Structure to design on (116 residues):
């Protein structure tokens, strides 16, 4: 893996909001409006962080009609796989993630905001 790609992934992990987004997307794909609802951030903020994560190769976007649904990119290298594993194990004690997860379950249970 090129050093620039590794640097981008580490930088993506350096922001708490991006970590929260990655953690949420580990539970399945979500659109921007769902992330805004769960994270309680403005839409431009969520979009900016999603763009950064996509540029780092950590997430992908799938277009469906007018909406883009984001999901975590499966690990392609050992380094990438370990970073994703860290999301699942290293951050279990972060209180904000538990709150986000509870909100995300509610959003998913009601069918999310974007029709499919």
């Amino acid at each position: 893996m090129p050093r620039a790609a590794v640097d981008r992934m580490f930088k993506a992990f350096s922001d708490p909001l991006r970590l929260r987004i990655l953690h949420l997307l580990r539970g399945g794909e979500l659109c921007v409006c769902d992330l805004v609802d769960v994270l309680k951030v403005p839409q431009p903020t969520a979009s900016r962080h999603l763009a950064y994560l996509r540029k780092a190769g950590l997430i992908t976007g799938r277009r469906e009609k007018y909406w883009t649904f984001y999901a975590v990119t499966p690990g392609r290298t050992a380094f990438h796989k370990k970073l994703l594993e860290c999301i699942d194990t290293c951050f279990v004690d972060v209180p904000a993630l538990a709150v986000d997860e509870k909100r995300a379950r509610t959003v998913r249970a009601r069918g999310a905001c974007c029709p499919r």
